[in-house]
Amino acid sequence: MARIRATSGEVRIAGAGVAGLAAAVILSRAGIAVTVDERADSPPATGTVFGLAGSAQDALRRCGVLERVRAVAVEQRRGTLRAGDGRVLIAADLPHPVLLVTRPDLQKVLAAELPAGTVNYGRPGRSPSEVGIDHVMIGADGTFSPTREHLFGPDAAPRPVGITVWRGTVDAFPTPTAEADTLYGETWGRGALFGITPRWDGRLNFFGAVRAEPGIATVEDFFTHFADWHSDVRAVLDGVGRDTLLHHDLFQSPPLSRFTSRRVALVGDAAHTMTPHLGRGAGEALIDAVTLAELLVEYPVNDAFARYEKTRRRRSLRMVRASAAVGSVALADRSTPMRDGVLGLVGRAMRRR
Ligand SMILES: Cc1cc2nc3c(=O)[nH]c(=O)nc-3n(C[C@H](O)[C@H](O)[C@H](O)COP(=O)(O)OP(=O)(O)OC[C@H]3O[C@@H](n4cnc5c(N)ncnc54)[C@H](O)[C@@H]3O)c2cc1C
Prior knowledge:
Blueprint: E1 11-14, H1 18-29, E2 34-38, E3 49-52, H2 54-62, H3 66-70, E4 74-83, E5 88-102, H4 103-111, E6 119-121, E7 136-139, H5 146-152, E8 159-170, E9 185-188, E10 192-198, E11 204-211, H6 219-225, H7 231-239, E12 246-252, E13 260-261, E14 264-266, H8 269-272, H9 281-298, H10 301-330, H11 336-352
Parallel strand pairs: 1-2, 1-7, 2-6, 4-9, 7-14
Antiparallel strand pairs: 3-5, 4-5, 8-11, 8-12, 9-10, 10-11, 13-14
Helix pairs in contact: 1-4, 1-9, 2-9, 9-10
Bound molecules: flavin-adenine dinucleotide.
Flavin-adenine dinucleotide binds next to helix 1, strand 2, strand 3, strand 8 and helix 8.
């Protein structure tokens, strides 16, 4: 592969999340000098599961790590959608298996591909104004990206969407109501949803989301909100360690008119934070990073940035909108009997086919 043609300098990446690490892997393998500055003092030790669709798996293949990720992942081949009372609305094989992998495991596999010393933990990313004429900077610094703020100001910051989510891991339990193959998937209630997915170590990953203004919901709300849901949800609640529960309010980016500016490009959540209803944020971050890094290897910087904008901006903004649309149906707080009726009909039609 050719080296970056328009610069003899290095590529500086802010953020060692999935996007920053994936970009660094492609660039360093092509012989380009790359450093990654990560604000946190060390790689994450905890974090629940990402579901990676086929296009994200392809990005991992292009990084040369797909088989290593598979070794610490589990495939989900079937998905179920249930109503709040536990009725199965849709149960179907997925068109393409989703790879489920924890954030720490995915990041560990990517980081292991980099030469020692590439990632500087405990060092915040530099300001884009410090990027020299022969350097390139990639802002992979997540939802609250200082790089994006510097380029586009506070109006480009992601906004809360009025949904809060708790996540965690529990030991497997006997499934009282669900058949083994209907345990995994989501349950959509009124203004709330609950999801259960497998983990490679035999435990279960779960997430529960409700409509709530940011900063208001508490751990106690998680337990009270889902207390009268179906028995599989209640079995998860019984197994949860309160101090291990992760809790986030959800944010969504306003659409940026550009992902690049002069010598700086944004990737992943820094460019397009989306709600998790399609389970695509990490996957799209990987695809951004791999696409941009491959283009920087092949083309002069200006050309690479123009091609990156063309390939990635519209697609990822469509994904942001699609994810929000799914969320508004999944967490609908009106007309849920009608929604469930329609979904039940869809499920029956799929079974007949
Ligand atoms: C509840 C929930 C569930 C989700 N489920 C899924 C799923 O199933 N599938 C999926 O694909 N995605 C999922 N996502 C989305 C996924 O977590 C993100 O889209 C993904 O992590 C984005 O990767 P990134 O590398 O762009 O950013 P991040 O993973 O956020 O990484 C950014 C990095 O930058 C660092 N950083 C921040 N500021 C600075 C700074 N100033 N200097 C240096 N470093 C800095 C941070 O410490 C972090 O390490 C989910 C998100 C949420 C909230």
